[in-house]
Amino acid sequence: MIPATFKYQRAHSVDDAIAALAKDPGAKLLQGGHSLLPLMKLRLARPGLVVDIGQLAELRTIDVKADSVFIGAAVRYHEIADHAPLAQVMPVLKKTVSVIADPQVRHRGTIGGSAAHADPTSDLAAVFLAADARFMVRGPGGERVIRAADWYVAPLITALASDEVLLGIEFARPSPDHQTYLKFAHPASGYALAGVAALVSYDATLHVTKAQIAVTGAGVLPFRAKPAENFLTGERLTRESAEQAAQLGADAGEYEGDVQYPAEYRKNLARVMIRRALESLA
Amino acid sequence: MSQMVLGSRVLRKEDVRLVAGQGQYTDDIRLPGMLYAAILRSPHAHARIKQVNIKAAQDMPGVVKIYTGADLQGKLQSIPTAWIPPESDLKMVAHPALASDKVRYVGDGVAMVVAHSRSQAEDALEAISVEYEPLPAVHDQLDAMKDGAVQLHDDAAHNVALHWKVGTETDEAFRTADVVVRQTFRQQRLIPNPMEPRAAVAQFNSATGDMTVWATSQNPHIHRFLMSVVLGIPEHKLRLVAQDVGGGFGSKIACYPDEVLVAYAARDLGVPVKWTETRAEHFTITTHGRDHVDEVELAGTRDGRVLAIRVKAYANLGAYLSTAGPGVPTILFGLIVNGAYDIPQASTEVYGVFTNTTPVDAYRGAGRPEATFLIERIMDRYAQEIGMDPVQVRRVNLLKKEQFPFTNAFGITYDSGDYHRALDRALEMLDYAALRREQASLKAQGKYIGIGFSTYVEMCGLGPSQVAGAVGFQGGLWESATVRLHPSGKATVLTGASPHGQGEETTFAQIVAQRLGLPVEDIDIVHGDTDRVSMGWGTYGSRSTAVGGGALAQASDRILAKARTIAAHMLEVPEDAVRFEEGKFHPEGNATKSVSIQDVTLQAHLGWNLPAGLEPGMEASAFYDPTNFTYPFGTHVAVVSVDPDTGEVRLVRYIAVDDCGTVINPMIVEGQVHGGIVQGVGQALYEGALYDDAGQLLTGSFLDYAMPKARFFPTIEIDRTETPSPHNPLGVKGVGETGTIASTPAVVNAVMDALSSFGVTDLAMPLTPPKVWAAIQNAQSMKGGQS
Ligand SMILES: Cc1cc2nc3c(=O)[nH]c(=O)nc-3n(C[C@H](O)[C@H](O)[C@H](O)COP(=O)(O)OP(=O)(O)OC[C@H]3O[C@@H](n4cnc5c(N)ncnc54)[C@H](O)[C@@H]3O)c2cc1C
Fold this sequence. Notes:
The complex is a heterodimer of chains A (282) and B (787).
Chain A: E1 7-10, H1 14-23, E2 28-30, H2 36-41, E3 49-52, E4 62-64, E5 68-72, H3 77-81, H4 84-89, H5 91-97, H6 103-106, H7 111-117, H8 124-130, E6 134-139, E7 142-147, H9 148-151, E8 152-154, E9 157-158, E10 165-172, E11 178-185, E12 192-202, E13 208-216, E14 223-224, H10 226-232, H11 239-251, H12 263-281
Parallel strand pairs in A: 1-3, 2-3
Antiparallel strand pairs in A: 4-5, 5-10, 6-7, 6-10, 8-9, 11-12, 12-13, 13-14
Helix pairs in contact in A: 10-11, 11-12
Chain B: H1 15-19, E1 35-41, E2 47-53, H2 55-58, E3 63-68, H3 69-72, E4 102-103, E5 109-115, H4 118-127, E6 129-134, H5 141-145, E7 160-167, H6 171-176, E8 179-190, E9 199-205, E10 210-215, H7 220-231, E11 238-241, H8 257-269, E12 273-276, H9 279-285, E13 289-300, E14 306-318, H10 331-334, E15 345-354, H11 368-386, H12 390-397, E16 406-407, E17 413-414, H13 419-430, H14 432-444, E18 448-457, H15 465-470, E19 479-485, E20 491-495, H16 504-516, E21 523-526, H17 544-571, E22 578-581, E23 584-587, E24 595-596, H18 597-606, E25 619-624, E26 633-642, E27 649-659, H19 666-686, E28 716-720, H20 738-755, H21 769-786
Helix pairs in contact in B: 11-12, 11-20, 16-17, 17-18, 19-20
The structure holds flavin-adenine dinucleotide.
Flavin-adenine dinucleotide (FAD) binds at residues 28-36, 38, 53, 73, 100-101, 105, 108-110, 112-114, 116-117, 119, 122-123, 160, 165-166, 190-191 of chain A.
């Protein structure tokens, strides 16, 4: 519980941070510290240099534009929950961050930290995937955009290069009319054993015009439940169609069990939670 | 006013300092020149140590000294056990503070670094290289007893640490009974996790030879006694301080290697040394609880009368014998497996087994939750077997009011009670008939709820000392108290009990306040310091108020007797004509002329005008040894819902009707009941240590080990009956453990009631969502297969 020796540096700008990363490939960026510091205390991570970018104003903006929404990487969960215009246009974000851990964690943890840490049970991963988030990053060679579908490479590994900084996350507007995030929490950690983000639009007769569904926690990686979306589109949203979609959606995941939660249980949970998320939107 | 003190909701005096961060926990101790220790722990569950190389580590920055097991050989006695159950053939195996030849569980200490800072000590640990020769490991007690299993200790064949039998003949009953129900239960291993991890600080004065150890202890005098033996420091030169302790639940009873090592280093180096456990260490080195396999048999009639119960228990004791380890699954378990029922024949046989796991010791309830679980579960299985309502089976067998004092088949005598009344009250709160109807109608909609009962009794308030001796506890179980009134009339009260979260600084003040007519705020309770309190046996087994409170009452009564003599002298009336009310003495029939206890105390200290021959001063001590255990009882009812889609169990309602005898502070009693229930439900639904075949703990952090959380619980519905215990002057019975003892089987019975629709009759705890879901899936696929 005592980290190995490290140096701490507060970056003055994103470019300053990029320069620090370039100089020391072992360096780690720090925002809320709620994933990095626990790992350092267990000595599972032992960076020689920690570069703090959590206070940088350029990473802390929320911008609700006509055709998109931008959230800076260092924006904290509670700031997302408290941002009224954001809740208006993308209610699923508030729903999701409100079920992450406890108030203490929500006052330190950041959207970008969660994205960059890429814990396969993180709640926001489901939203990023379901909502086709775009990850804006900058490195020594300039800026680029990484699509959510390409972001999660492996547990705790993203498409971000080690000398790049995540600037923020962008969502296209308008996003579907009906949105929810439903979580079955691990009784020990409180992380998602299965978390489902569902964004659905339907017409007056409940016929689905658009469905975007993703699952976090249950699988080896967070995944998009495309077969469920394809099935639902054009269907009426009912208990039966939700169940069928859920079955197809759960099939899209890849599962691995642990000593307490076997693979088949995780898959079942993905199915049940997809169905319940969809039912809650009807 | 003072008449109302006992039984009123006085706010906890200790909370002011604890909530304000002004408590003094062991880790808060900072002494000039203090060094920090860190302990290198075995990553293997079982291995021979070939070589320990400390060279590189010695050169690390800040390192003062490194000790290995070899360095300490012959310098320290073995870490002792303090409970030797009679006729159990207990194998008192050696437990060195640091291993030198073999490590026997993951976490076993191998070396200790002392450095100028904690991080330097931790850094140096990484530079020590140990060459191990891994050996096969065994973590399960049944596997450990098998032929050919790897042996942990040379002198414990089949890894059997103890074998103990108690009870009556039962064969006849089992041969002739209408019904015999058999069931094997696993009561899984739990990890205590008090909020404050363990810690120790030691300081040695080489000129005087005085050693002071601050440590997280539930029983400083026992700690001092054991450490004095291990370290070879006489008790009058050893001071143990445990001022504020952030919970223990049994895990801070034991004398561990860690505090011994710290004291050793402080003496060796001549500077203070501190060690603080990390949470990760806590999971692997601080004693665990439970871990039983129990084969239970019940013989009964078709109409619901239990004739006999027979239990064979296999208790996992871990790698070494912890301080109270051998006593928990024997004495504290085997003598009460008949529970609250009138069962004429009963026997218990226990094997205590060594395995390559963390040592097991007392955990809230210690033995009695295990006993209560198996009797309450087997009663439900029996009810099912004969097609009787679980409440009815209990009614038939519960002891009746007229039967007290009642001596059970094991020879222990239950003090007092009205078990049926507690059951009736719980049923009334529940509205049982209506709930059964609701259950049926929900089931028709594919929704499953279950109702579970636990009509428990437990034995606590440990002593008396004679019994302690008879059952092999290597100590006394009386308690001491000193009441000291200062000239101003304020009181300092010393107790040998050692509260660590239970609130006794408040309840003890209430006891003294009530007896002496003093305001509660004028009374300070001092505990947890062997230099201030002459002797005591500490806090565990719900004994503090029953025994420590008894001592307080006696000491207070002695004060009062002396004060009355002085008051009579001051009032110039004969002593038997003096009345004492609300802190004032006055002549019989004349309330206008009076002297207060404060006036009397001042006179006692001044000594200007005392009755002839009376000593000045106002202080009294008492050493109180009770005549028996106390037996709290009650009925707990759990109502659960089971989600068949996810297997998730939710507690919908929880009703607790407890009888802990006289209630001193209802708020504190309710707090104890709440916390106890939550811990018991933790075992039923969430908690459980898991090891892999190599003996690695798989649930070594809060990410994997599920502690119960507030959000898992409905409002707990509490009521109580009050049957004073005839065994102590206060009539109290103890309430520190009842919740934990009662709740586990209530919840499991409720889940099994819900699952009875699927034909599931038993599942091993914890009843986690995947386990419940799989059981339902199995049941359904079997049904599908049949049709
Ligand atoms: C008790 C507890 C409970 C939790 N429960 C949950 C839960 O229920 N659900 C959930 O989803 N999460 C949970 N978390 C994790 C929490 O959400 C973390 O805050 C989050 O995962 C990381 O955000 P952070 O700002 O703290 O990141 P940090 O810890 O500061 O950083 C995390 C990682 O991201 C990197 N990084 C940070 N910022 C950038 C950037 N701009 N560009 C590139 N790399 C960057 C860091 O180098 C580091 O590797 C919990 C955490 C704790 C401590």
